Amino acid sequence: MAAVDLMKCACDKCLCIVKVETAIDRDGKHYCSEACAEGHKTITGCGHSGCGCSE
Fold first, then answer.
1. pTM metric for this prediction
2. What is the per-residue DSSP string for 10-55?
3. Domains of the chain (ranges plus CATH)?
4. pLDDT digits (tens, 9 = 90+) for 36-50
């Protein structure tokens, strides 16, 4: 069985941990949601319970 690679979402304000294989990959960084991947330019928060990241 292969090990699961986990890492913190690349969004500075986000608290989410993502699986590298299913994360949104932008410029070599891994994000938990489209909101984080786009830098919260048009979407507030990441939509995951208990996180509340936004700019």
1. 0.84
2. SSTT---EEETTTSEEETTEEESSHHHHTTTSS--S-S-TTT----
3. 1-48 (2.30.170.10)
4. 999 999 999 999 888
